[in-house]
Structures are given as C-alpha cells and as structure tokens.
Write a structure and sequence with these properties.
The structure is a single chain. The protein is of the alpha/beta class. It has ten helices and twelve strands. Among the domains are: about 110 residues, Rossmann fold, CATH 3.40.50; about 160 residues, Heat Shock Protein 90 (2-Layer Sandwich), CATH 3.30.565.10. Helices cover about 55% and strands about 15% of the residues. The strands form three sheets. Strands 2-1-3-4-5 form a five-stranded parallel beta sheet, with helices on both faces. A five-stranded mixed beta sheet has the order 7-9-10-12-11, with helices on one face. Strands 6-8 form a two-stranded antiparallel sheet. The protein is rod-shaped and about 145 Å long. About 25% of the residues are buried. Its EC number is 2.7.13.3. It catalyses: ATP + protein L-histidine = ADP + protein N-phospho-L-histidine.
Length: about 425
C-alpha cells in the first residue's frame, strides 16, 4: 500500500485554504492539512508526517520567511519541500530571499490551477521515487546482511568439509601404518620371546652346577646377537613409520606455516602412501632435488598429494594391472613447479573441464564425495598462493601442473 502524500497548506486566509483544499483534492493519493499561522505550521510538522508545504508569505505575527527559517533549523523538517505563495511580494528580491531559505518554488497569486497541480504532481513523484530508493537501499542492506550470514555459514561449512577431507585422507594411511607396524612389532615380540627362553635355558644350566662348555656359550651369544639385530631392525622400522606418520598427521591436522624442504615433505607423504600400496601393483617415483626451500604450509600440500595419489589409484588405475605415479619439481623464479603424473586411464575432456568443481565425481553413488579436487584447488589457489591445471599425459594418463609460491602469501585474519 502506497504512503499518502500529505500537503500542508499554510495561510491566514480561510478562503485561500478552502480553495487550495478543493484544488488539491483532484489529485489521487494526496491528503491536505491546514494551518492558519506559522506557529501552527511548525506544530503540525512535529505532530504529523508532512511531505510538501504550500506556505503563504504574508501572515501576521510570523510571516512565511520566518516560518521557513524555523523549518530549516530542525532536522525533522529541513528536507520538506516548501513552495512560497504570495499575492503582493512578487519582486525578484523576495523570490531570491525565498529560494535562499530553501524553497523549491515561488509562485504568485492568482495561481494557475494547472501549473500548481503539475508542480505538486512533480514533487509527489519525486517523493515516491525517493521513498522507493530508500526502500530499495534498506532491502539491499537486508540482502547484504543475509548474504554475509550465508557467506559466514558457507565458510564454516567449508572449514568442516576441509577437516572432513583431511580425516578422510588420513584414514587409509592410519590403517596401512597400523598394519605395517604389526609386522615389525610382532617379529620383535617373537624374537624377544625366543631370546627369553634361551636365557632361561642358560640360567638352568648354570644353576644345575653342570660345566658350561665354550661351544655352548658361543652358540648362545650368537643366538643373542642375531636376536638383538632382528629386534633393532624391527624397532628402527617401527620408529621410521611412527616418525613419518606423526609428521604427516600433524601437517594434515593443521595449517601451520613453517620453512621446509619440498623433497622432505613429498618423501614423507610417499613413504606413508607406499604402505597403502605395498600389496598393489602400483608404484610411486619421486624425482625432486633437495634444496627447494619453501616458506609455506606443509599440511595442505600433504593433503593435496594424498588426494591426487588416492584419485590415481581409485580412478586412473581402475581395471589396470599396473600403474606408475611420478612426482617431479623444479624451481621457477620465485615459484616451484610440481608436476604430478600417472600413466593410468586419463581423463575425458568433460572430466578435465569439471574436475575442480565442487561435488563433481565420476563415482556418483559409489562413495565419492566430489570434494577432494575442489578442496585441492582452493588450497593451491588460496592458502598456497599458486595455480593448478589438469592436462593429458603422454602417451596416456593424467597430469597436474601445480605452481606454488616459494613464500606463501600472508593470510589476512577474518
């Protein structure tokens, strides 16, 4: 429903007011309010919403000029359009004074009906446009607030999805490492048990008082040395797995910035990923020189590599009896170019076009979330300050060209 356009007619002559009321009554959507003096005019503008004032210049006690001056001094009434109406003060000096007091028009009596109505229509139209613009501005502000809330929710959701993908990337590594740890730990337990039984046998011989032959002692020492070497080998293997897993797990779980050699980070991820590929025909080859130092975030880089390797195994090598993943890197100015390639099934043009789209997956309904590559793209282009592109391998397979800033951009706090 449109707001009523209220016109305040201020004139000490009642007949003039009645004439203007009748004339203005022809305009739809307009309401007429009357005031017989400047003081009454000021009071009405406080009590009611007024959109236009037709103000007589000559009035007793407070004339139109003084009334306009008071209206200009008040915030509520300062922007109400004033049209001066006069029968005698028609000289240019009076009209200039009226315009100087903020009037939008200065009309002389007798008034031309059509002229007055057209002017009122104009001011009514301007008021409606201003009201529409104000409403539009309020609507835009409300929309912006809603969009900001939606953006905040989206960021929270994205953070949760990133964390979920981090855990998903770690899950197969955790299972593989646990399986790998069982082997050396189990061997150590078996050797330790055998060594314990051997020691108990030697104690029994010594406690019986029987003479201990040199050959028996040498045989026992040989078995003990072999057992200790086997246990040390198993412990070293266990410590290596635990150390690599701890570093990758810490990097996956956080986005802490630090200085690192790219070869060390990639090698650590590959060692652990190889535990998941040990019983498969798939291999990973690393051709990255040492000394490619980066001031960046190893955690996201670990996650990107884990996702790419997982995708090669799941998609690129699907139905194949063997597969090779190759990782290469070299310095390129202030950047490092990391090339990931596999010799698998490759990607169609459609897949390449949408591979970084959120929720895009070629395994719909088979457990694929379609978020892994989208998160990789966001991590590379955002936190790591680089670019990532998908291409075809030669003669087959898939290639991802990743350019990373040696010094990642500073993250601006939200």
């Amino acid at each position: 429903m449109r707001e009523r356009f209220n016109i305040l007619v201020v004139d000490d002559n009642v007949n003039n007011r009645l004439t203007l009321r009748a004339l203005l009554g022809r305009l739809p959507g307009c309401g007429v309010i009357e005031a017989a003096s400047g003081a009454a005019c000021l009071l009405l503008t406080v009590e009611q919403e007024v959109h236009l004032i037709l103000l007589d210049v000559q009035m007793p006690e407070m004339d139109g000029f003084e009334t306009a001056l008071h209206l200009q001094m008040t915030e509520r009434t300062r922007n109400i359009p004033i049209v001066f109406v006069t029968a005698t003060l028609k000289a240019e000096e009076f009209s200039k004074r009226g315009y100087g007091l903020g009037a939008v028009d200065y009309l002389a009596k007798p008034l031309d009906d059509n002229l007055l109505l057209n002017r009122v229509r104009l001011y009514k139209s301007l008021h409606e446009r201003e009201a529409a613009l104000e409403k539009h501005a309020l609507d835009l502000q409300a929309s912006n607030e809603q969009l900001q809330e939606a953006l905040d929710r989206l960021r929270m959701t994205q953070d949760k999805l990133v964390q979920s993908e981090k855990l998903a990337a770690l899950s197969p590594i955790v299972a593989a490492v646990a399986h790998e740890l069982n082997t050396p730990i189990g061997n150590c337990m078996t050797v330790a048990s055998t060594l314990d039984a051997d020691i108990a046998e030697m104690e029994q011989i010594l406690n019986s008082g029987q003479p201990l032959k040199r050959s028996q002692l040498l045989e026992h020492l040989g078995r003990a040395r072999t057992a200790s070497q086997l246990m040390l080998r198993g412990m070293f293997r266990t410590a290596e797995l635990v150390s690599n897993f701890k570093q990758v797990a810490v990097d996956h779980a956080s986005s802490q910035r630090r200085t690192f050699d790219l070869k060390d980070i990639v090698s650590g991820v590959v060692i652990l990923m190889n535990t998941t590929l040990r019983k498969t025909p798939y291999k990973i080859a690393v051709n990255i020189p040492g000394g490619l130092w980066m001031d960046s975030y190893p955690g996201p880089l670990d996650q990107i590599l884990s996702n790419l390797i997982g995708n090669s195994v799941l998609h690129g090598f699907d139905g194949r009896s063997e597969g090779l993943i190759t990782l290469e890197a070299y310095a390129e100015g202030e950047n490092v170019r990391l090339i990931y390639r596999d010799d698998g099934n490759g990607m169609t043009d459609e897949v390449k076009q949408h591979v970084f789209d959120p929720f895009f997956t070629t395994r719909l309904g088979k457990g694929g979330s379609g978020l892994g590559m989208s998160i990789c793209y966001n991590l590379v282009t955002g936190l790591l300050g680089g670019t990532i592109e998908a291409a075809d391998g030669v003669p087959c397979g898939a290639v991802f060209n990743i350019v990373l800033a040696c010094k990642a951009p500073q993250v601006t706090p939200a």
